[in-house]
Amino acid sequence: MDRASGRRSGRGQYLVLYNFLSALLWFSILGRVVMLVPLVGTSHVYGGVGHFAKWTQTLALLEIGHSLLGLVRSPLSTTMLQVSSRLMLVWGIVDRFPDLAQSPAYSSMLLAWSITEVIRYAYFVMVLRGGVPDFLAWLRYVAFLPVFRALTWMYNTFYVLYPLGISSEMWLVYKAIKPAGLVRAEYQWLLRTILLAYVPGSYILYTHMMAQRRKIMRGKKRLQD
């Protein structure tokens, strides 16, 4: 194996490990949220999963490095926008004002995030492994059509999960404005600016995801032809 092949192999193994670990962590968060909400209510979700979710989301800082170093094709701008906005929520708002996490918006935010990330990371593992899982092999479609179906479903869930996640995030930012003013006036104005920035920011992410969905749908159509 030459050096170039070795580097590609090492990169692939690292990305498989990273995506598998991330899917596992987010699946754990999803399971905890689904279990805690009916048992103890949304007001106690933070106590059961808050710190774990905070550090799991912080792990996504690596994705900025992945994009910057060219390990993945994800645009650096959209990666930074998504990662930074989430870090602002888990560190700058919920960690700073934990009482806000008693709101149902915190639980719905984690629910939207975790479902999205489990699907996304699991799909990336499947693609990086070079094929589809054994349990999909029996399907009567051509080899990679199940992959495109899985990815199409992933992007279709975006129609539901994205509005749920964004509205939950905006509510938490809005509710943090008043207590932030008791800390520093500049902090309060920063959160007001961030809340306004959600309008163009959410549009950028939304159009990016829709462009990805159209690309996948075109690929799926070519496989079916």
Could you name the ranges where pLDDT drops below 50 across 5 or more consecutive residues? 134-148
The H/E string reads HHHHHHHH
- Would you count the extended β strands for me? 0
Apparent shape: globular
The number of helical segments is: 8
Mean residue pLDDT = 81
Evaluate the radius of gyration. 19 Å
Largest sheet: none
Level of helix content?
over 70%
Output the structural class. mainly alpha
Distance between the termini: 37 Å
| Strand percent estimate | under 5%
Q: Could you describe the 3D structure shown?
A:
The chain is mostly helical and 225 residues long. The protein is 83% helix and 0% strand. The chain is built from eight helices and no strands. Helix 2 (45-58) packs antiparallel against helix 4 and helix 3 packs antiparallel against helix 4. The radius of gyration is 19 Å and the shape is globular. The model is unreliable at 134-148 (pLDDT under 50).
